[in-house]
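Re: your question from the hallway

Yes, I did run it. Sequences:
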Amino acid sequence: MTSATPVSVPTDAPARPSPKSPAAAAPAPTARRSARRRELGACGVLMTPFFVLLTTVFLIPVGTAVYLSFFSDDQPGLGFGPERTVFAGLRNYTAVLADPTFLGGLGTVALYCLIYIPLMVVGALALALLLDSGVVRLRGTVQLALFLPHAVPGIIAALIWLYLYTPGISPVIDLLGRADITVDFLGVHMVLPSIVNIALWSNLGYNMVVFYAALQAVPREVIEASVVDGAGPVRTALQVKAPLVRSSIVMVAMFTLIFALQLFTEPMLLSQSTPMISSRFSPSMYIYDAAFTRNNYGLAAASSVILLLCTIALSYGVTRWTNRADAAEEGAR
Amino acid sequence: MPGRQSRRSVLATIAALPLTGALSACGGGGGDTRSGGTSSTGRTVSSRTGRKTRITFWSALRGSQEVVDAFNRGHDTIQVDFQQIPGGAQGGYAKLSNAARAGNAPDIATLEYPQVPGFAIDGVCRDITDLVGDGLRAKLLPQALGLTTFEKRVFSVPLDVEPMVLHYRTDLFERYGLTVPRTWDDFEDAARTVRDKSDDRRMALFPTDGDNHVAAYAWQAGAQWFDTAGGAWNVSLADAPTRRVAAYWQRLTDEDLVFMNAVESRHSDVQIGNGLVLSRFSGAWDAGAQMKARPGQKGQWAIAPSPQWDPADPGVGTHGGSTFAVTRDCADPEAAMEFIEWQISHPDALRARLSSGASSQYPAAPDLVDVGRKAFDRSYYGGQDIYTLFEQEAHKIRPGWVWGPRMTATGRIMKDGLARASGGQGSILGAIRAAQEGTMPDLKALGLSTTQRST
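Structure:
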């Protein structure tokens, strides 16, 4: 997320000069040392909660999952013998990677990301640019209306949409039916778009606010300059403003990607009323199913680790790629 | 492992402390009341007699409360605390495995046959081979006990065994001039007649959530989905008999001779309730469920043997049926077994269950069939002696069928595939193959020895 462009998310700006400047100003070496010690102490106090939480809610669970994925309480043969804990090696990993239902889930999520992320980024950016351009009246109200769905918890959102998707009780399907349009939102082909729609509804407003905040930080003189140069509002938005909030776009895309990979709540709830969403629809649902209906904790742990590695690899890939693109752009300038 | 166990029991003790206090206070206040099944009175009773064993029992079966009440009335030294739990698919099995992991499983759990090997492998079921005496063994239908025995060890005791039978509408059969089909070819012809003569009625339903139906059809045709020969789980869901069954139902669904939707659904209720479907395939138990669910259709239904592939070599698969397992956590397995033995073989137990009016279970102990014959209210089925029919069918159950170690998961994948097949994606056989492919990684990750045949 490190950006070479001078304009960035506003919070970056004041953070940069602060740590070094008091130390540089201190004249005597002893005073410098004590100041340094105080600084380290403050760092320690401020960062301890973070590391405590990181350890208890991230490192320990991840460590447990890794352990569970390699060790197993086995009963040889048919499985009715006495249990003994053995090192299972990569057994769970090969099992997961050979499981067509897990690979199918990965495929589903990949398709979901391909539909959802571009729609989300482009949609949120377009809305933010519209709001920023001043075309929209009642800006505050519009912003609130768009942001409000984000305040609805995911499970409630899924319930609301489930109601709107279910034939027989949905007023939407009823209205469409009167216009002679039959849509089965929970049918074979519509299920994924239906889930994308729920996610968009929930998160569009939030990401729009992120973009809008970034746009507020675009220096007015740059925009004035572009207007003086004869750029219309559309051109200003697309060729001046949008490139200046590049780092926010990357950030939103990455967070959206990470959340999308963990797709769980919406399909889990919808699966209650459509057989088209299987119990292993996404990798997260696969993990849940492996642990809680199949009582196969080794398999669940191995698939969790694989999902984690995929997420890390993809996020790293995205950052590397954008950094390189940034550097290339810099070089071209 | 022992360390974890003890920490858990300490925690459990701490958690139970306030509860014990409340109960003893309660018992002190109402110490004279002996009636009622609450634990507070039970505690008082036990302190009076000195040695009374309490057994906890979980079940989702209809009529269980009546059975437990009858047992408790007749027994002094053992008292059973019954808890009605949701059906397996509705979370009953998840509840059981979570309780077992937490170390507070009931003494006796109710398992359907397909779930027995899974719970045995997970160590929830206790190996009760030594507690099943020759007397009890002799009381049970061998095919039923065979389903709960692995490597010569018994993990659960069968309560009922449910041969799949044909429930049909006598009035509608008459209207369309149909006779009861004896072979599957007859059945197909009859289905064609119904489709040709009626727009909205169909002969039967092929359930998209019917993994157990598919299993019963395949079992009848001679399939062997799982087999434990050679100390390994040999998996072959798509064997030749299964392929034959899949092709048969595929043709019936393709030609619109049968409905294809979920059976556990409002849709299916409407089909049966409005007389749109002329017949149902299900276990003997369904006769009682039907009686309870649709009293208005009294006198319209009769029951017949399932059609056969080859009448010269008749066979039947089972659909449903339950067993009782003693859990590993049980403190007094002998007492638990006494209740189980009474429940599966005592005439009073069956009478009590049938008195609920919602059960028509076919007991796994053949001696009880006579009791069922007498105790079952025949009026709904126009006086038909359905227990005699069940008895004939039970003897046709093909021996040697084995359920797999993760049937819930295997069945779910099959259901997913069948649902997609009904939406035009894939086929019935495809769903069966997918179920096998999705099961193998599970078994391998559990560390079981496996082999598989994909033909």
